[in-house]
Specification:
The complex is a heterodimer of chains A (525) and B (418). Chain A has 21 helices and 18 strands. Chain A has 525 residues and is an alpha/beta fold. Chain A folds into two domains: 164 residues, Ribosomal Protein S5, domain 2 (2-Layer Sandwich), CATH 3.30.230.10; 307 residues, P-loop containing nucleotide triphosphate hydrolases (Rossmann fold), CATH 3.40.50. Chain A is elongated. Chain B contains 18 helices and twelve strands. The longest helix of chain B has 22 residues. The chains are: A alpha/beta (525), B alpha/beta (418). At the A-B interface, helix 7 and helix 21 of A face helix 8, helix 9, helix 17 and helix 18 of B.
C-alpha cells in the first residue's frame, strides 16, 4: 500500500518541497530509502524504526520502500524523519491518510519518539507547499514567523498521531519567550574621544560604506565597531525575514517570538577558513559568515591576520551582494549584502603609526601590508586612522550623562535614519550602492568642490577610481548634515579626510619608502 | 696549475685585482695585505700556485689547497670582460684612480669597483649625509634639502644608496645638478662645463656589486647615479650584498667624507657604524637636531648631546668645512624655492602670511595652526586639540596647506617653518 506525506529539504538557504512516498508490500522484510538521500537522511531508517516501536506502534514485517520525490534533488539532513514515520504508519494502515493531507511534517525523530528541531526550519516551512505545517514544539514560534495559516506542534510521535486521529486536541503552541528588548548593544556614549573614528562610523552607517580602521592595539577600533549595530536603522520586516532564513539555515538561533529587526553583527575570528566565511561544506552547502551578516555588519578584526586567500574571496560578494558556491553536489547562491567593517594595525610592531615610530624593517612592513590586496583595499570607501585616545579624554569625568560626555548612540542613529531616508528617496537603499552613472544626476558638485577635486586629481592625491567613491561619501556627509546637493567643499574635504591616507593603502601609512621631493616641491627647512 | 698561467697573459692588472676580490672569503684586509707586496698579476699567480692561502679567521682552515683550486676555476677573463663592457672601473691601493683618503686610516679599502665618473671626486669637498631607513617624512625632506643645497654649493654628497635618508640625500644632490644644468643651458650658457653636473655631484657607496641594484626601489636612482654621479663598492660586480658588507660599506662612507652628517637615526642602527668609523678616522660628525619625542631623532639628539656639530642646514656644514657664503653668492633668481632669508632660518611662530584676509575663517585657521605642532599629528589629534568640528578643521587644514603653513605627509600633519 502507498502513502504520500509532504515535507521539505534544504538546499543552501532555500527550502524545497519534498513528498515522501512510502510503499509497503509483501516480500522479504526490508527498508530502503531512494531519491538521493545523504547519509543523515538514509539513517532515518534506524531512527524511524526505533521511534515507531518505542511509541507503541507495530513495525511492519514487510518490504518498505521510501522514495523522496523529486528524486533528482539531493536530500540532506534529518528533517524528513517525521514524514517517513507517518508514511510508514499510513502505508501500513495504522493511521488514515486523510488527516495527513494539507499538512507538511518537518522534524527529526528521537529514538523515544520525540520530535526534535532541525536547522533551517524557517526556509523549510516557507517552502512546504501545504497550508499547514507540523514542527517540534521548540520551533513553534519560529515557524509562525513565516506566516503559515496553520502551525501545529506535538511533543512526541504518539501525541501527534492521537491529534491526527482526533483522539486528542492539538497541543497548544508553547508561548515564545518575551521578545528581547533591543538586545544590549553598547552605547557610543561610552567611547571617549575618537572624533574621526566616530564620524567614520556614523558615515558608514548612514551610507552603507565599507569601513577600515587602522590603529594600534588598544585604540578602540573594536570598541567602535561593536557600537555600529546601535547606529544602523532597524531592518524592514522583509529584510528581517531574509536574515532569519539565512540564520536558520546556518543553524543559528533565530530569535523566537518576533523577528529580530536589529541588523546582524558577525565577527569571525581571523583563523576563519575560506569555506566558513563564504559558505560551502560537505553534503549540505551551508551559508558562511558573510551570509549570516546579510543585511548587517561583517566585522573582521585584525584584518591583516586573515590569510590573504581567504580575504580575496570577499571581493566578488562585496560587489554583487551575493555569493555563488559551486560544488560537485550542486550550485547554491547565498545572499551576502553586508557592510564590511575591518580593523587592523598599521604594522606588526604595533607602533602608533606616526612617522618614525615603527620598529619594523621596511621589508617586514611591506610584507604585513602586502597581505591585503589592492582590489580589496579599494573597496573600503572609508579608511580612517584610529590613534590611541588622549589621556585627557580617558580621565574626563562623567559617564553617559555626565559633563562633556560623548554623543549617545540614539542621537547619532536618528541622524543616520534621516540620511537613509534621503537615500531611499533617491532610489538606492544606501549611497554606497548608488551606481556611478547616477552620481552626476543626484550628487552634483559645486564650483568650489570641483576646483578642490581637480586640484587633488592633478596632484595625484586622488585616483579616478577614488573619485566616485569620494563623491558617494561626500553625498552621505551632506545627507547627515541635512544639506542638499550640490556637494560643497566642506563635504568633499570631510570625505577625503575619511578616505585618508590617500590612495596608496596602508603601505603608505608610514613614511613613504622611495619617493623623495622633486625640485618643485623642495622646500626650505 | 702551470698550464693555466699562459692563458692569463694579455689581461691588464685590473682584471687580476678584480679576480682577487672575487675569491671566496676574501675581504678588504686580506686584499690590502696581499697587494701591498705583489702586483695583482703576481698575487693571482701566487694564489693559483698555492703560495698564498685564504684569509685566516680564528683557527686556520684545512682547505687551502681546495681554495687554490676554486681560484683556478674562476673565469678571470670573463669577469674582466663583464667589467669592461659595463664600464666598471677597478682600482686598488697604489693604482691610478684609487682615492688616497681611502688608503689611509685604520681599515683601508681593498679593491674598489666603480660605475660612473669617480674621478670627479678628487677636487671636490666631500660631505656624507647618512641616516636611518626608518625615517620620518621630515627626515627625507631635510636630507633632500641638505643634499640639494650642498651639491648646489659645489660639495660632493656621499651616501649609501639605502632607502630613507640616504636615498633622499642622493636625490637632492642629483636634482641640484639637473637644475644647475638647466640654468646654465637655459640662460644662454656662460660656458663652463658642458657635460656632467655643474656642481658638487654625488657618490654612492654600495654594499652590493655596483651593477646589482639594492634596494630594488632605488633602480631609478641607481641609473641616474651611474649616469651623472658615481657608485663605488668593494663588492665585485654581480655579487649581492652580504650582511657584513654593510658595516664595511659604512666605513668607506666615513673614510671618503670630510664631515659625516647624520640626519635621523634611532638608538641603534647602521648609522652608528658610520659614526664610529668617522670618529676612528678623525672625521667630524654633525647631526641634525630633532624633536625629543621623535624616535627617529633619538640617535641624532644623543650625538648632539655627546658633542657632535649641530647641523641646521647646509650653511652649518659649509661653515664647518670652511666654505663661506657659497649659498649667498649663488644667484637666487632661478633657485628651487628661493628661501626667504637663508641668514635667519626659522622665524618664530608666525607662519601665516600677513596678506591673508581677516574674518571668522582666519581665526579658525589660527586655532587649527596652533593645534598642529612640530611633531606629526594625525587628523584625529588635530580635531581633538583644536576642539573644532571636523568639517571646520578639514577646511582650515586645506587652506593652510595651500598657503604652505602646514604639510601633510600620508595623513600626518606637521607645521612648516618659513
Amino acid at each position: 500500500m502507498l502513502a504520500t506525506v509532504s515535507s521539505a529539504t534544504l538546499v543552501g538557504v532555500d527550502g524545497h518541497a519534498v513528498s515522501v512516498e512510502v510503499h509497503v508490500s509483501n516480500g522479504l522484510p526490508g527498508f530502503r530509502v531512494v531519491g538521493l538521500p545523504d547519509t543523515s537522511c538514509r539513517e532515518a531508517r534506524d531512527r524511524v524504526r526505533a521511534a515507531l516501536i518505542s511509541s507503541g506502534f507495530n513495525w511492519p514485517q514487510k518490504r518498505i520502500t521510501v522514495n523522496l520525490a523529486p528524486s533528482g534533488l539531493r536530500k540532506a539532513g534529518s528533517g524528513l524523519d517525521l514524514a517517513v514515520a507517518l508514511g510508514v504508519l499510513a502505508a501500513d494502515a495504522q493511521i488514515g491518510t486523510a488527516p495527513l493531507a494539507g499538512l507538511a511534517f518537518i522534524a527529526e525523530l528521537g529514538l523515544d519518539g520525540s520530535l526534535r528541531r532541525v536547522p533551517g526550519l524557517l526556509p523549510l516551512v516557507a517552502a512546504s507547499g501545504e497550508e499547514g505545517v507540523v514542527v517540534p514544539p521548540s520551533c513553534g514560534r519560529e515557524a509562525c514567523l513565516v506566516g503559515r495559516a496553520l502551525t501545529r506542534t506535538a511533543p512526541t510521535l504518539m501525541a501527534l498521531v492521537q491529534a491526527l486521529r482526533g483522539q486528542a486536541p492539538w497541543p497548544e503552541l508553547p508561548p515564545g519567550p518575551e521578545p528581547v528588548e533591543a538586545s544590549t548593544v553598547p552605547d557610543l556614549a561610552e567611547v571617549r574621544g575618537q572624533p574621526l573614528g566616530r564620524r567614520a562610523l556614523e558615515v558608514a552607517a548612514a551610507g552603507g560604506h565599507h569601513l577600515l580602521m587602522v590603529g594600534p592595539a588598544g585604540a578602540g577600533k573594536t570598541m567602535l565597531a561593536a557600537r555600529l549595530p546601535g547606529l544602523l536603522p532597524a531592518l524592514s520586516a522583509d529584510q528581517a525575514l531574509e536574515v532569519a532564513m539565512v540564520h536558520s539555515a546556518a543553524g543559528l538561533d533565530v530569535a523566537a517570538g518576533a523577528l529580530c529587526l536589529r541588523p546582524p553583527f558577525r565577527s569571525p575570528h581571523h583563523s576563519a577558513s575560506a569555506v566558513s566565511l563564504i559558505g560551502g561544506g560537505g553534503a549540505r552547502l551551508r551559508p558562511g559568515e558573510i551570509s549570516c551578516a546579510h543585511n548587517g555588519v561583517l566585522f573582521l578584526d585584525e584584518l591583516a591576520e586573515f590569510p590573504a586567500g581567504v580575504l580575496d574571496n570577499l571581493r566578488q560578494p562585496l560587489e554583487e551582494g551575493r555569493v555563488v558556491v559551486c560544488r560537485a553536489t550542486g550550485t547554491v547562491a547565498f545572499p551576502a549584502r553586508f557592510m564590511l567593517v575591518a580593523a587592523m594595525n598599521a604594522c606588526r610592531c604595533d607602533a602608533d603609526g606616526s612617522p618614525g615610530s615603527c620598529r619594523c624593517s621596511s621589508a617586514a612592513r611591506s610584507r604585513y601590508v602586502a597581505r591585503l590586496s589592492g582590489p580589496l583595499l579599494d573597496r573600503f570607501d572609508l579608511r580612517v586612522r584610529v590613534p590611541r585616545p588622549l589621556v585627557e579624554d580617558l580621565l574626563r569625568p562623567g559617564g553617559p550623562a555626565g559633563e562633556g560626555a560623548s554623543e549617545a548612540s540614539a542621537t547619532v542613529a536618528a541622524r543616520v535614519c534621516d540620511a537613509r531616508g534621503r537615500a531611499r528617496q533617491r532610489g538606492a537603499p544606501a549611497n554606497a550602492q548608488l551606481p556611478a552613472w547616477r552620481l552626476d544626476d543626484v550628487a552634483p558638485v559645486s564650483a568650489g568642490g570641483r576646483r578642490l577635486l581637480e586640484r587633488r586629481l592633478r596632484e595625484g592625491r586622488l585616483s579616478a577610481r577614488g573619485l566616485d567613491r569620494v563623491r558617494r561619501v561626500a553625498l552621505t556627509v551632506a545627507d547627515l548634515a541635512g544639506d542638499e546637493p550640490p556637494l560643497g567643499e566642506e563635504h568633499i574635504l570631510v570625505a577625503l579626510a575619511l578616505r585618508a591616507p590617500g590612495e596608496e593603502g596602508p603601505g603608505a601609512w608610514h613614511e613613504p619608502v622611495a619617493s623623495y621631493g622633486t625640485p618643485a616641491e623642495a622646500r626650505p627647512w | 696549475m702551470v698550464s693555466v698561467l699562459p692563458a692569463l697573459d694579455g689581461l691588464p692588472p685590473a682584471a687580476y685585482a678584480a679576480a682577487l676580490a672575487g675569491l671566496p672569503g676574501v675581504g678588504p684586509g686580506w686584499l690590502v695585505a696581499v697587494l701591498a707586496e705583489r702586483s695583482p698579476r703576481e698575487a693571482w699567480a701566487a694564489v693559483l700556485a698555492g703560495e698564498i692561502g685564504p684569509p685566516v679567521r680564528g683557527r686556520p682552515r684545512p682547505g687551502a689547497h681546495e681554495w687554490a683550486g676554486a681560484a683556478g676555476r674562476l673565469d678571470v677573463a670573463g669577469q674582466w670582460e663583464r667589467c669592461r663592457r659595463a664600464g666598471i672601473g677597478v682600482c686598488w691601493p697604489g693604482s691610478p684612480g684609487y682615492p688616497d683618503v681611502l688608503g689611509q686610516g685604520p681599515a683601508p679599502a681593498g679593491v674598489l669597483f666603480s660605475a660612473g665618473a669617480l674621478d670627479r671626486l678628487g677636487d671636490r669637498r666631500r660631505v656624507a649625509i647618512v641616516g636611518t631607513r626608518r625615517c620620518t617624512p621630515d627626515g627625507t625632506d631635510i636630507a633632500y634639502r641638505l643634499g640639494y643645497d650642498l651639491a648646489d654649493a659645489g660639495v660632493c654628497v656621499i651616501s649609501g644608496l639605502a632607502l630613507g635618508i640616504d636615498g633622499a640625500a642622493h636625490a637632492g644632490a642629483l636634482a641640484a645638478g639637473r637644475e644647475a644644468g638647466d640654468r646654465s643651458g637655459g640662460d644662454g650658457g656662460d660656458g663652463g662645463e658642458v657635460d656632467g653636473p655643474v656642481v658638487g655631484g654625488t657618490v654612492g657607496v654600495a654594499a652590493s656589486g655596483v651593477d646589482v641594484v639594492y634596494p630594488r626601489q632605488h633602480a631609478g636612482l641607481w641609473r641616474e647615479m651611474v649616469r651623472v654621479g658615481a657608485i663605488l663598492s668593494e663588492t665585485p660586480p654581480g655579487h649581492p650584498a652580504q650582511a657584513w658588507r654593510f658595516p664595511s660599506r659604512n666605513r668607506l662612507i666615513a673614510g671618503l667624507a670630510e664631515i659625516v652628517v647624520v640626519v635621523e637615526c634611532h638608538s641603534k642602527g647602521g648609522s652608528w657604524h658610520t659614526v664610529e668609523a668617522a670618529i676612528k678616522r678623525g672625521v667630524e660628525v654633525g647631526a641634525v637636531p630633532g624633536s625629543v619625542r621623535s624616535a627617529a631623532s633619538v640617535g641624532t639628539n644623543r650625538l648632539l648631546h655627546e658633542g657632535a656639530t649641530p647641523v641646521r642646514g647646509a650653511q652649518d656644514v659649509l661653515d664647518a668645512l670652511g666654505v663661506f657664503d657659497v649659498l649667498r653668492a649663488r644667484p637666487q633668481a632661478s633657485g628651487p624655492t628661493s628661501p626667504t632669508s637663508p641668514a635667519s632660518p626659522a622665524s618664530p611662530a608666525s607662519p601665516a602670511s600677513p596678506a591673508s584676509a581677516s574674518g571668522p575663517m582666519r581665526t579658525m585657521e589660527d586655532v587649527v595652526l596652533a593645534a598642529v605642532g612640530w611633531r606629526p599629528l594625525c587628523l584625529d589629534e588635530v580635531v581633538e586639540r583644536s576642539g573644532l568640528p571636523l568639517a571646520a578643521v578639514v577646511i582650515a587644514l586645506d587652506h593652510l596647506e595651500e598657503k604652505g603653513a602646514l604639510g601633510a605627509e600620508e595623513g600626518w600633519w606637521v607645521r612648516k617653518a618659513h
